[in-house]
Amino acid sequence: MPLALLALAIGAFGIGTTEFVIMGLLPGIAGDFGTTIPTAGLLVTGYALGVVIGAPLMTTLGTKINRRTMLMVLMGLFTVGNLLSALAPSFGILLVGRIVASLAHGAFFGIGAVVAADLVAPNKKAGAIATMFTGLTVANIVGVPLGTFIGQAVGWRVTFAAVAALGVVGLVGIARLVPVLPRAEGAHLRRELAAFRNTQVVLAMAMTVLGFGGVFAAITYIAPMMTQVAGYSEGAVTWLLVLFGIGMFLGNLLGGRYADRRLMPMLFTTLGGLAVVLALFTVTAHNKFLAAVTIVLIGALGFATVPPLQKRVLDQAHGAPTLASAVNIGAFNLGNALSAWLGGLVITAGFGYTAPNWVGALLAASALVLAVWSAALERRSRTRTPAPTTTTGPLPATTPTPPCSVPAA
């Protein structure tokens, strides 16, 4: 494994911790600022929207400098945002800090995914991307539960300060381990934007929004759901987040292993399974053991879609993958923002803390429909492409060359 992949995983660990640790801190933050849980959920929505905006913005700015320098800049921005969150005197400033940190997220994973894919052989690209995303999944096994524990024990501000320290570690790791990688020859913004005219790129991003949105519809409100519905103590939420992280880790490895060989069947299986499990979560959330098992499955099925979806965007974007890759990371977070908002709406409407699970099931099922449509369009495109004409010998000199008999599409 190239050491550069380890450096990328270190950065991903820090970013993954700050993205997901907020879920376990929502009750404490809401209590400190005297606001409701759904309002505190805006910290998830705001972060996600910041990723959506920051992904294309920061990637575009980064086209003028080498990739290692840009990754270092992004980790610096991430660190500043978390320090601002730790010192925030009001809920509004905390939200601003979250958004500042989030601006680095999409571009980091987008540029990092391109770097990871370029470091290995073509048949190992999805595996390399999965290795980088391992940092994100390990963050949910170690970083997020530890951050949640610290937040509950000594305060959420200490958690954000610790995350800022992780940002510094990530920056140093990138500076020491990632080689100087100039932007691709001939890389221009116009060429990068041209990738979005590809229907398959757009469909892959839509699958990302809906599929990952399904995961976060449930997981955003896991703390109140598990304490108020399943009957877990507040301290047990830390261990439930560990289970979610273990599921993410296993799912990410599974997705990376099979995406290079059977990408679309992998998406059909994981998206369909995710829709079913999220629907069942409305029932299993009332039982401690079944709720814990379901949380593992949601993490595994949700993150098994990450390597194949990211690889599909890279494949379909052809020679201009950087911006498309970053925007697809934004699409993951647009799904987070959409689902956190919709989940808050159904809770506020009085449908209870399990209602977001139905929202998630519908989103995942919609992603499955798009995956089937995408595969159908791909098959249709292949059948319309005429096969090359071959002959067993030269045509007689007196025989005119026949016109092409393939009808126009």
UniProtKB/TrEMBL annotation:
Residues 4-382 form the Major facilitator superfamily (MFS) profile domain. PROSITE patterns: MFS (PS50850). GO terms for molecular function: transmembrane transporter activity. The keyword DNA repair does not apply. Residues 381-409 are annotated as: Disordered. One of its GO terms (cellular component) is plasma membrane. The keyword Oxidoreductase does not apply. It comes from the Bacteria. Keywords: Cell membrane, Membrane, Transmembrane, Transmembrane helix. Residues 397-409 have a biased composition (Pro residues). Residues 384-396 have a biased composition (Low complexity). It is a multi-pass membrane protein. This is MFS transporter, DHA1 family, inner membrane transport protein. It comes from Streptacidiphilus jiangxiensis.
